[in-house]
Specification:
Layout (H helix, E strand, L loop, with lengths): L12 E6 L5 E6 L3 E8 L4 E8 H10 L1 H8 L9
Antiparallel strand pairs: 1-2, 3-4
Helix pairs in contact: 1-2
Length: about 80
Amino acid sequence: MSRTCSISNKKYNNANRVSHSNHKTKHRQQANLQWKRFWLPEEKRWVRLRVSTKVMKTITKYGLMSTIKRYGADPSLIQG
């Protein structure tokens, strides 16, 4: 399984490690992904998704279905 957010498709960020002598080497910054259960009131069940913490905050504010529409994710993502 790849390290991508289920809703926003957020992946890693390419960055540089910079030494004291200003020598730069490539480095990957992984997204802060967490497994989280969300309650679907329409279907009266829990859904377990791997999402970034930024998306968690958005879901808390707007709700799960609204967030999926906001990010343009596939609604079949939460189907049983």
